[in-house]
Write a structure and sequence with these properties.
heterodimer, A: mainly alpha, MetI-like fold, 2 domains, B: mainly alpha, 15 helices, about 0% strand, globular, disordered N terminus
Chain lengths: ~300, ~300
């Protein structure tokens, strides 16, 4: 760059200096913290950091804790169940993208749960699932005497309750992503289908859904990472209960650090969480690369 | 496939294929209405429950309108509800949330917009490397960095203060916001930036006189994203705040989990409504901007 009159070092390097704060934050607070967790997970730390190296001992202890194993399997079910919001969101988008009047009204209704805190989501669904005053009672009053909807209170069904609440919360988001995907499809594709007289259903199954596979894969990755991060909704709805049957790894880790004050195991758990998320990011990067190649 | 333009205009516009079949249209409306009712139901239940007395709630008609609607539960929730620490209701949490929100909004927008501008419009060494790093940071779960951040904030005496909560929110928002700003600023025509440089405008001058005047929309989108995100946060406020600095969501959760005596669902629902109203108002009045925010946050990687 040509030297401008009176330029000081600060002026000449203004752009490079401007990124320094963010770069430092990424380096120290994110990468530094992540590395710290990895290091701590291999030490004997308990209430206080203790730099005695113990190898993989913390991980062995972690995986022999039945509660951690349970939280991992809960995470699997939670992620699988949350796929419901992707499926439902896509169907809502398909219906709304067929030129119906009132599209905006419906979108507003389906999306408002996104604007509300997950603490509120958890609280209101806990209330709806209240066995003596909530939905169960409502259906019993209608004459269904044996109607059983006490999902939160039983260990076999508590994850269902969380899944239902999370589908209510996030369906609108996946509807918006699907809508964008459908809108992104070239209008000539639709025109061609009309000339050839292909039915809309066949069109969706054979052309549109395959064309939208990157939208779906992206949604899937976001949904999985969302499940790994889920925390607030458990606190507000179940607090991990009954008996840990609605604990997720994210909840287990905070509990380990804050209540059980075990830094070593908390760090080991976070390292596993980090590995999970990095796996999904790699998947995401691979998808991005593939989709760019296709363009 | 080439189509004659005259036919094309008749056939393709509007972009989407109108559903000619009245049966499928009716079915769609029916299904959409059913789902709309299901999705609206929790909000409806929250509102009616908050207007009832506990005696009425115990009758078990969760969908019934209140017989004698009253705002007593709202008054209780705002002014008097017990949170385990005091009996001062939600109002202190509301003000804490405001005090947390303002600096974190200002700091996160300032740092990320400047960094995004530098990355988009200037040659920054290792700029692409930084973007890759930020993409990874954006996905790292808070639990992974939580404990070290607590230690650091204790060291600089920000732990258990509302400003400390603001700083953590800023840190958490920077990766995604920087990427959003970078993507937006990259779409500004290069000629404008070059012209400004020829006129002697340097880094800050170009930013203030050329880039910022072109960016009110993205600023609004980011502001909506940040306001709703920070308002709705729970975990950061819980782990970095304290009794004097807990945001409204933590306050709400404390009120509902205070296990002394009966569970007063009318007060809980009123408290939930009070906490939900600010982001809901923003949502209903901002419409498309809100949608742009959540999709930009999700997809511009």
């Amino acid at each position: 760059m040509a030297k401008v009159k009176g330029t000081s070092f600060v002026h000449r390097h203004a752009a490079s200096l401007a990124v320094v704060p963010v770069m430092l934050i990424a380096l120290v607070f994110y990468f530094g913290s992540a590395v710290w967790s990895m290091v701590m997970s291999m030490t004997a730390s308990k209430i206080f950091p203790d730099m005695t190296f113990v190898g993989m001992k913390q991980y062995i202890r972690l995986f022999s804790d039945a509660l951690w194993a349970l939280s991992l399997s809960n995470l699997g079910w939670y992620a699988l169940g949350s796929l419901g919001s992707l499926v439902l969101g896509f169907f809502l988008a398909v219906m709304l993208e067929s030129n119906l009047a009132g599209e905006r009204f419906f979108k507003t209704v389906f999306l408002y749960p996104m604007a509300v805190s997950l603490i509120i989501t958890g609280l209101v669904w806990q209330w709806l699932f209240n066995p003596s005053m909530g939905l169960q009672q409502f259906f019993r009053d209608l004459g269904l005497q044996d109607f059983d909807f006490n999902l939160v209170g039983k260990k076999e069904t508590v994850m269902w309750a969380l899944v239902i609440a999370s589908i209510w919360q996030s369906t609108g988001f996946y509807m918006v992503l699907s809508s964008a995907g459908i809108k992104g499809i070239d209008s000539e594709v639709w025109a061609a289908s009309r000339i050839d007289g292909i039915s809309k259903l066949r069109m969706y199954i054979e052309v549109i859904i395959p064309m939208m596979k990157f939208t779906f894969l992206t949604s899937f990755v976001l949904l999985s990472i969302g499940a790994v991060k889920a925390y607030d909704i458990i606190v507000a709805m179940t607090n991990g209960g009954p008996g840990g049957h609605s604990e997720l790894p994210s909840y287990y880790i905070v509990d380990m650090y804050v209540n059980r004050q075990n830094i070593g195991m908390g760090a080991a758990g976070s390292t596993i969480l980090l590995a999970l998320v990095l796996g999904f990011i790699l998947l995401f990067a691979a998808i991005n690369l593939l989709s760019k190649k296709k363009e | 496939m080439k189509i004659d333009p005259s036919i094309r205009s008749q056939m393709i516009l509007p972009n989407r294929v109108p559903s000619k079949n009245p049966v499928s249209k009716t079915v769609f409306y029916l299904l959409l209405s059913v789902f709309a009712v299901l999705f609206a139901m929790p909000l409806y239940v929250m509102i009616v429950t908050s207007l009832k007395s506990m005696d009425e709630i115990r009758m078990g008609h969760i969908f019934a309108l209140p017989i004698t609607p009253s705002f007593d539960a709202w008054d209780m929730a705002w002014n008097k509800a017990a949170s385990g620490f005091d009996n001062a209701g939600l109002k202190s949490g509301f003000w804490n949330s405001v005090i947390i929100l303002i600096p974190s909004l200002a700091m996160s927008v300032a740092f990320s917009s400047v960094c995004g501008y530098a990355l988009a419009c200037w040659n920054v060494k290792m700029g692409n490397f930084l973007l890759m790093a930020l993409l990874v940071c954006a996905f790292i779960p808070f639990q992974v960095i939580m404990y070290p951040l607590i230690k650091m904030s204790v060291a600089v005496k920000l732990y258990n203060t509302s400003f400390g909560v603001s700083v953590v929110h800023t840190v958490l928002a920077l990766p995604i916001l920087t990427m959003i700003f970078k993507n937006y600023f990259a779409s500004i025509p290069e000629e404008l930036i070059k012209a400004s440089r020829v006129d002697g405008g340097r880094f800050w001058g170009t930013f203030v006189y050329v880039v910022l005047p072109l960016s009110p929309n993205i600023m609004i989108v980011v502001a909506i994203m940040q306001i709703t995100g920070i308002w709705n946060d729970f975990l950061v406020g819980l782990t970095f705040g304290n009794v004097k600095a807990y945001p409204m969501t933590v306050n709400l959760n404390n009120i509902t989990q205070t296990q002394t005596g009966v569970r007063v669902y009318n007060v809980y629902m009123a408290a939930a409504m009070l906490t939900a109203i600010p982001p809901l108002l923003i949502y209903f009045f901002s419409g498309k901007m809100f949608i742009r925010g959540i999709t930009a946050g999700a997809l511009k990687g």
